[in-house]
Write a structure and sequence with these properties.
The chain is 35% helix and 28% strand. It is α/β, with parallel strands linked by helices. The chain has a domain of 171 residues: Rossmann fold. The relative contact order is 0.18.
């Protein structure tokens, strides 16, 4: 197993959001977590990544290594990446400098070949994601539209090449062309080794990134799992038939 989550409980400001959550993912798999608003989907993504204000119990293992005692940056170094639902603007730090430091660790001056390779890779991804060429020289997300911010998240993910990428509602704020562009870039990374956990309200992005498994999350737990057919069923029926069943 690449990712193993067992009996995960997450409490925020004294309020329990997730209780007894379990999930396993093998290397190379694509999983989708769907659910209504307030079901705990984004909380789950932040808890896996290591939000410092969350009180977390249980176990989250990546490649058999416990993550809960590690800080967010330490988890990132282990191969974990989170694409944010609402990416923050960071003034004074350009996109290209962030990617250089994250990928090369400040060694770009010592290894020009790696620097040139990274620059070429970034240029290729910028074009693929239909971002303005000069955007990588701009401060991270400052003055970017919502759709551009989501594309920059995918640019970072593509450049860092993580083992497991968590995409927290990457489709929100994107029009249909934006969804197709982002999905195309993600699909190029689906190689049977990298894994993806896609968190979404709606199944539209799953029409382009086909998941191996779809899970429905209600009240902090998975209440139903299936394949892509489950996502299509949710599109037709909504979540009511599952939320009412859960309450019963």
């Amino acid at each position: 197993m690449l990712l193993e989550i067992k009996d995960l409980t997450v409490t925020i400001d004294g309020k329990e959001i997730i209780n007894g959550f379990n999930l396993s993912m093998k290397e190379g798999e694509v999983h989708a977590i769907m659910g209504p608003n307030g079901s705990g989907k984004s909380t789950l993504s932040y808890a896996i990544m290591g939000h410092p204000k969350y009180e977390v119990k249980g176990s989250v293992k990546l490649d058999g290594e416990e993550l809960l005692e590690l800080t967010a940056d330490e988890r990132a170094k282990k191969g974990l990446f989170l694409a944010f639902q609402a990416p923050q603007e960071i003034s004074g730090v350009s996109i290209q400098n962030i990617l250089r430091k994250a990928k090369l660790g400040g060694e770009e001056k010592k290894d020009l070949d790696k620097l040139i390779e990274l620059q070429n890779q970034i240029k290729k991804k910028v074009k693929e994601l239909q971002l303005p060429e000069e955007s990588i020289k701009r401060d991270l997300n400052v003055g970017f539209s919502g759709g551009e911010k989501k594309r920059v998240e995918i640019l970072q993910m593509s450049s860092l090449n993580p083992k497991l990428s968590i995409l927290d509602e990457i489709d929100s704020g994107l029009d249909i062309d934006g969804v197709k562009t982002v999905a195309k870039s993600v699909n190029k990374l689906v190689d049977g080794k990298k894994s993806f956990l896609i968190i979404t309200h709606y199944p539209r992005i799953l029409n382009y990134i086909k998941p191996n498994f779809v899970h429905v999350m209600v009240n902090g737990k998975i209440v139903k799992s299936g394949d892509f057919k489950l996502a299509k069923e949710l599109e037709k029926k909504g979540y009511g038939w599952l939320t009412s069943k859960k309450e019963d």
